[in-house]
Amino acid sequence: MVRVIGFLVGLVFAGVLLISLITGFATYLKNPPAPLASTEFHKAPRPLHLASDGPFGKFDKRQLQRGFQVYSEVCSACHSMNLVSFRDLKGLGYNDAEIKKIASDWKTQVPSINPDTGEAATRKALPSDHIPAPFPNEVAARAANNNALPPDLSLITKAREGGAAYVHSLLTGYTNEVGYKNDKGEELLKKFPDAKTPENLHFNPYFANLNIAMPPPLTADGQVTYEDGTKPTVEQMSTDVAAFLVWTAEPNLESRRAAGLAVVIFLLVATVLAYLAKQQIWHGPRNYVMGETGPLDPENKAKTRAAERKAGVAGEA
Amino acid sequence: MSFSWAKPYEPKSPFMRWLDERLPLPRVVYGAIGGGYPVPRNLNYFWNFGVLAGIFLTIQIVTGIVLAMHYFATTEGAFNSVNQLIMRDVNAGWLLRYAHMNGASFFFIVTYVHIFRGLYYGSYKAPRELVWMLGLVIYLLMMATAFMGYVLPWGQMSYWGAQVITGFFSAFPIVGEPLRVWLLGGYAPDEAALTRFFSLHYLLPFVIAAVVILHIWALHIPGSGNPTGVDVKDERDTLPFHPFYTAKDGWFAGAVLLLYAVVTYFAPNYLGHPDNYIPANPLATPAHIVPEWYFWPFYAILRSFTFDFILPAKLWGVLAMFGSILLLFFLPWIDKSPIRSGNYRPMFKRFFWLLVIDVLILGYIGGAEINPFNIALGQIAAAYYFLHFLVILPLVSRFETPLPLPNSITESVLGAEAVETAPVASKKKRGGTIASATAE
After folding, report:
1. B39-426 is classed in which CATH architecture?
2. Which of A118, A164, B5, B47 is deepest in the core (most CB within 10 A)?
3. Of A25, A260, A275, which has the smallest distance from its Cβ to B261's Cβ?
């Protein structure tokens, strides 16, 4: 009975799937899906190589500091960094005094309460504060950005497919829509004349739907002045800020890998030892029979002791 | 418990004797996973995965309890408590969280190998039907627990995954929508849903642990199966669990933990989805909503029903998805072949490997983008899944000619001549030469 019911259920499900398959195929033939500009002209991120890549990569702290400088002078005008505290910047190699200064000099102050009147007020940031957001709330952020919301950047390299390479490609990927060709050599506006970038948006083939609300943030070489003498080209600034955003998303990266290496070595040794122990134990199980007892079982120990006593050898107590 | 030659527990110290006379817990443990449990001597490495599943359940419970100490079950605080407090400020919090995240994936990996081991070697057949069904109960509980755990960080995929999965219930006519609202405690996932998911996510692992005990208990009545599927006949066929299988499980557990450590420490987000690092936003639907990888085959079955044939396509999808797991409960009665092991079933073996490929295809389709080709491939694969279990298996078990079985486990290991010379400690004679499996 179970098999008969099962048989019928199986045939019904398979039958409905067959009908779905056929109707799907018919629909496909009748009106094949139209190609989309956002799939045919989208570009995969350009490869980016950072010091922190690979299983043993370490952060380049000077690069992180440069990236932080780009963030604080450019990106932080619109983008928050809610999960990072000033004290965390120790990871970039700053000392306590420098962090204190960075915090108190930060362009946005921290909301607080006037101790005399109890009214809302602001105060200078402290190392224990999170990096203050540029806008007090989402409405203010949207109002200042053509109704677009600049995402928080703390986790951005973990929250986007492609990570740091995507960030770098996006920052440097703005281009003129007119005359833009994809890898196949097709021209966007010739193939999709309707795909013109709307007003207030900006064409960027690395962005999912090709049109991003963010205007090009890094526009000219020398937009920031690096203290360590590195030449601030757009490419360099973009790479530095991408490296910095890898750090903000994963500040424990180095200790995680260091711990991982120790764990892997430990487990390797332990596994090899356990394997050898297993080989030793399984060496003779062909003749092993459950009922037999080993030399350490109480009855055999007693026998050994009795034999030793008989032979006059001083047995263990 | 199972065989007359199982070694009884003998306390080795006065304290253990004292304890054993009052609370025979050491006796139970000895009989379950110690020297007192006789296990067929011919198990291969596929028999290691049950113990591995137990190890990962333990890892999940331990890391989960500590994570719960730092987690805030509120829609305002959940995302930051995970991504800021736990990942940045709690000592080694990143390790706890990544170990828990990837521990879930590895729990499913070893469980899937364990289930397919059961499918190939006929572990669901008499007298182990209840072992199989309790195992499926554990699997269902795991799926519920994993789903609710994925909601807790309150990222985009958490939120929209909860939206989609609880939406399954609304496919049922009349009762569906009220049921969904009742389960969620609201019209969409919100505070009420998050707090109850957290509560249940903490509860269910202990329910799983309890069912695991029943699963092992039910297994120890007939004893473990083995790759030949032939019943144990006398004590030459078995070895004590300890030290033989503790040693074998031990080193293999080390090897699998090594793999787990590599993923956890060096590619912790490889198995996850980037969108879950974006805080939940009820107003912005992600471009592609996909569940965690271990649900992909079922998600593919759900999405394969695209045509309203009498019932709405969504209801077909939901019925098929639940049906795809429920049918496994009937497997012991669907597959009537008395031969357990796929090694001696030439036709079954081919269809088994076809099923493995089929489920892998379903898994790929479930995680891939929707396009006409993927949908068609998913429909064919989903149809084969149902045909395999409900149509092909009963037919195969009727028409297949099995290969001859070995007379005994020992013979399959040592060859017929060696059996005669192998020592027998007990006075019992060997049983009949025809496997009792064929007589059923």
Report:
1. Up-down Bundle (1.20)
2. A164
3. A260
The full set of domain ranges for chain B reads: 39-426
Give A82's contacts in chain B (Cβ within 8 Å).
80, 84
Are B78 and B154 spatial neighbours (Cβ–Cβ below 8 Å)? yes
Is the per-residue pLDDT at B179 higher than 60? Answer: yes
Active-site residue, B292 included: yes
**CATH architecture for segment(s) A61-80+133-251:** Orthogonal Bundle (1.10)
Residue appearing with tokens 């973990």 = A158
Instruction: Identify the bridge partners of residue A229 per DSSP, sorted by sequence position.
Output: none
The tens digit of pLDDT for each residue in A112-135 reads: 999 999 999 999 999 999 999 999
Residue ranges per structural domain of chain A? 61-80+133-251, 257-284
Nearest-Cα distance to chain B for A52, in Å, is: 12
Q: Quote the CA–CA distance of A51 and A63 in Å, as a whole number.
A: 9
User: Which of B83, B98, B247 has the CB atom closest to A155's CB atom?
Assistant: B83
The kind and range of the H/E element at B133 are helix B129-151
Burial class for B181, CB neighbours closer than 10 Å (0-12, 13-18, 19+): middle
With contacts defined as CB-CB under 8 Å, which chain B residues touch A166?
none
Burial environment of residue A37 by CB neighbours within 10 A (0 to 12, 13 to 18, 19 or more): middle
Answer yes or no: do B333 and A2 touch at CB < 8 A.
yes
Res. A56 pLDDT band, cuts 50 70 90 = very high
Return the structure tokens found at A208: 């999912």
